[in-house]
Design brief:
The protein is an alpha/beta fold and 261 residues long. The protein has one domain: HUPs (Rossmann fold, 3-Layer(aba) Sandwich). It has six helices and eleven strands. A nine-stranded mixed beta sheet has the order 9-8-7-10-6-1-4-5-11, with helices on both faces. It has a two-stranded antiparallel sheet with strand order 2-3. Helix 2 crosses helix 5 and helix 3 crosses helix 4. It starts with a strand and ends with a helix.
Length: 261
C-alpha cells in the first residue's frame, strides 16, 4: 500500500500578531509545530503500513521552515517526504491550496491512500481534504476514526454529528482522520541519529516541477476567496453572573440589550 499523508506546519501558540498593513499573520519568530490533527492521520497511516506493508511518505506545502515537520514525520516512521515550496504558491486560499497539493501528489506518482487531518488549527476550514479529493477525482471519507484494509477497499468507521457510519471505500481514495482517534507516537531518537537532516529522503517541488504551470491556478491569483482584513478580537474580562431567575430568559434579555440578537 502506497500511503501519502498531508501535513502542515502551524504556529505553536495562539498569540500570533497580525500585520496591520497586509492583514496576514506574522509568522516570523513564532514557534511552530506540526498541525495536531495531522499527527492523528500520520499515526493512522503508520499503523496501516506496519500491519499491511508498503510505503508512507508525507507531503507539506509551505516555506523551507516546514522541512522541520517533514523531518519529524520521518523520525516517527515515514519513509520520506515532499515539500511544495515556491513564492508563486503564497497567499493561497483553500481552493488554491488543495489544487497545489493535488499538483504535488501527481508529481509524486501513483498512490493507494491519501490521509489528512480533519482540519488545521490555523485555518480551521476543514475543507482542504475534501477539495483535494475532488481535484484528484478520487472518493473520500471524512471524520474517520477506524480504518482497515479489505482487498482493494478500505473499511472505515466515521463519526458524524448524530450518528456513526461504517462503510467501505474503493482505493485509491482519500481519508480525513478525526481528532483524538489514537495516540500519536513520539519521534524516534534512533531514527534521528540514523537519518540526521534527512536530506536524502526529502524532495522539494517548485512551480517548475509541476505539470500545470498556469499561474492563475495558484497562490493569490488562484484564490477566489480574498481576505480583506484579519484582526485580533477585543479581549475583556467582563462577565455576568446570573444567580437567580429564569436562566434562559435572563440570558435572552442580556443578548437583546446588547443587540446581539
Amino acid at each position: 500500500m502506497n500511503i501519502i499523508v498531508c501535513i502542515k506546519q502551524v504556529p505553536g501558540t495562539n498569540k500570533v500578531n497580525v500585520d496591520p498593513v497586509t492583514g496576514t499573520l506574522i509568522r516570523d519568530g513564532v514557534a511552530a509545530k506540526m498541525n495536531p490533527y495531522d499527527l492523528y492521520a500520520l499515526e493512522m497511516g503508520l499503523r496501516l503500513k506496519e500491519k499491511y506493508g508498503g510505503t508512507l511518505k508525507v507531503l507539506s506545502m509551505g516555506p523551507f521552515s516546514a522541512l522541520e515537520v517533514i523531518r519529524e514525520a520521518i523520525y516517527m516512521g515515514a519513509d520520506g517526504g515532499i515539500l511544495i515550496s515556491d513564492r508563486k504558491f503564497g497567499g493561497a486560499d483553500v481552493l488554491a491550496t488543495s489544487y497545489t497539493l493535488c499538483s504535488g501528489i501527481l508529481a509524486m506518482g501513483e498512490f493507494d491512500l491519501i490521509l489528512t487531518g480533519k482540519q488545521t488549527t490555523d485555518g480551521d476550514t476543514a475543507q482542504v481534504g475534501s477539495e483535494l479529493a475532488e481535484h484528484l477525482k478520487v472518493p473520500h471519507a471524512a471524520y474517520v476514526r477506524e480504518l482497515e484494509l479489505e482487498g482493494d477497499r478500505l473499511r472505515y468507521v466515521s463519526n458524524l454529528d448524530n450518528k456513526t457510519v461504517e462503510a467501505t471505500i474503493k482505493m485509491p481514495c482519500l481519508v480525513c482522520a478525526d481528532g483524538e482517534v489514537n495516540t500519536p507516537r513520539l519521534p524516534s531518537f534512533k531514527r534521528k541519529m540514523e537519518y540526521g537532516n534527512c536530506d536524502d529522503l526529502i524532495k522539494i517541488i517548485t512551480f517548475d516541477d509541476i505539470i500545470d504551470r498556469d499561474e492563475t491556478h495558484y497562490g493569490l491569483k488562484g484564490s477566489p476567496t480574498q481576505v480583506e482584513r484579519i484582526f485580533e478580537p477585543d479581549k475583556t474580562k467582563e462577565k455576568v453572573i446570573i444567580a437567580e431567575g429564569d436562566l434562559a430568559e435572563e440570558t435572552f434579555k442580556i443578548l437583546k440589550d446588547r443587540k446581539y440578537i
